[in-house]
Amino acid sequence: MSAEERGDPRPLSWGERESKRRARQRSHRASGAERVWTRSMSRLRRLMRSLGLSRRRIEVGGVVYRELSGVSLRRALGETGPGVKEYEVRFPLPGRGLRSAQYPHREEMRIRFTARRRFADLGHDPRVRFVHAMRDVVRPGQRVLDLGCGTGAGSAQLASAVGPSGGVVAINRDGESIRFARQRYRADHLAFELGWLDTLSGELDGAFDVVVAVDLFRDAPDDPGKSRAVSELWRVVRRGGWVLLVCSDPSEIESYEDRLGGLGGERVERVDPDPVLGWAAVRGEKPEPTRGSRDGGDA
Q1: Each residue of 117-129: b (16+ CB within 10 Å) or e?
Q2: pLDDT for 44
């Protein structure tokens, strides 16, 4: 019986073996050239970015960010960088269910990412992490105050937690941050306002179920000013509600903690610090009125 009849493969001729060898060589050369090309293009892109000749385009949730310089965000905010990185932003058209009075038309704007003005779509914002730590006390239907809301990512997270039956009032004193937040995080039950503690003067005692405040002591260098600031937040949170105080300077956390305890706060506890920037936070519960007390007010 022959090899073909037994099903054995036919021995290759010299020409066939040589043809296969050359095909393998061509394949190896092509893959090697492809690797060299990939490495070269990667180096070229890095060089162009370092020279400011290449600018990235980033899209998150329909919002488009375009770099206005080729310097990376990390380098821009580093010790040798300028301390700011600029982007041009284009926002999508608002949905039909949104109030046209608050969001009348599509807007394009220029933003500046700095150490204090942080955009969660582009880099780390500790506010988001600390707001997430309040998920065990924020409930649907609640009313929440977010003082020092920054560019609004944490406020949007709170609005998602309370749902359409609740509401979030987000306040910040930086106009650029508020303009951005109003376009980026649109919801009928989320309102962004320009202001600070004085904005709360019209709020009733116990108006909020949860209060979040970031860098409350920035404009209150003296002890009386710090005490007044915490007392004002304590006034507008209801009995049984919670206050979260966040500070970008961790050395101040003990002062926050002492003042919450001094106002009678219960379950006062520190939240795990932010591992990236070192921000610290403490939270406490405003006690319910004791049984048999003369009044059940929130003051």
Answers
A1: bbbbbbeebbbbb
A2: 65
